[in-house]
Design goal:
The chain is an alpha/beta fold and about 230 residues long. The protein is about 35% helix and about 10% strand. It has one domain: Rossmann fold (3-Layer(aba) Sandwich), CATH 3.40.50.620.
Length: about 230
């Protein structure tokens, strides 16, 4: 199939964004974008991003530094004085790992890039399952952002904000990744470790439970692998 459209895909290096890139690659030429924002696993996530970009032979790739997040603080991912919480999959409150308004910052960069390179869509791997903890993962947020982007760009610019896994569970994401032969072994999700995944932060817990529910062994290394229900 000849792909005549370009999509900008925000790729953190994690499983969700990798599967989102796999979905976008079915219909679009890929321009992948990665944000370094001072997170604890910045170097490991950047490596995962480049590995994924290589795997998909991305037509374009862009890495941007958002140093303002470390100056703003307010998140355990960017402020080392705030402890990374142990996993609590039943928690419905905003966790300390929430980076204030991060997705809006990421989408702003993606839309700017998309307008310059003539992309017609921006893909982001947001998951509504995370919305109870992360308010910027709600479908209404992305609908509103698309309207704002339309108002704030040139009249001829039309960019669709795509969230293809927004209503997926983590096990659904694993299954879709396997179906599309996404390189899940190249991804990194841990909030605090860059060698072996810790296995005890929220991100590791959601990931491990997703693989378990999908009936598949997670291919990345862990310090410990708790059995999450």
């Amino acid at each position: 199939m000849v792909k005549d459209k370009i999509a900008v895909v925000a790729v953190s290096g994690g499983m969700d964004s990798c599967v989102t890139a796999a979905i976008a690659a079915q219909s679009y030429r890929l321009a992948l974008i990665h944000i370094n924002y001072g997170q604890r696993t910045e170097l490991r996530e950047l490596r995962a991003f480049n590995d994924i970009a290589d795997f998909y032979k991305a037509e374009k790739r862009l890495v941007i530094d958002f140093g303002h997040f470390t100056k703003i603080g307010g998140s355990s991912l960017t402020d080392k004085s705030i402890e990374i919480e142990k996993a609590d999959l039943k928690n419905k409150n905003v966790p300390t790992s929430y980076v204030p308004f991060r997705n809006a910052n990421i989408l702003s960069a993606c839309v700017s890039y998309a307008e310059v390179i003539g992309a017609s869509a921006v893909f982001i791997g947001a998951v509504y399952e995370d919305a109870s903890g992360y308010p910027d993962c709600r479908p209404k947020f992305f609908e509103a952002f698309e309207k704002m982007a339309d108002l704030g760009t040139k009249p001829e610019t039309k960019i669709k904000i795509e969230t293809p896994i927004i209503h997926f569970s983590k096990s659904d994401i694993v299954k879709k990744g396997i179906e599309l032969k996404a390189p899940l072994d190249l991804t990194w999700s841990c909030y605090q470790s860059e060698d072996k995944a810790c296995g005890v932060c929220d991100s590791c817990a959601f990931r491990l439970r997703g693989f378990k529910q999908a009936g598949v062994e997670d291919p990345i290394p862990y310090i410990i692998r708790p059995d999450y229900e």
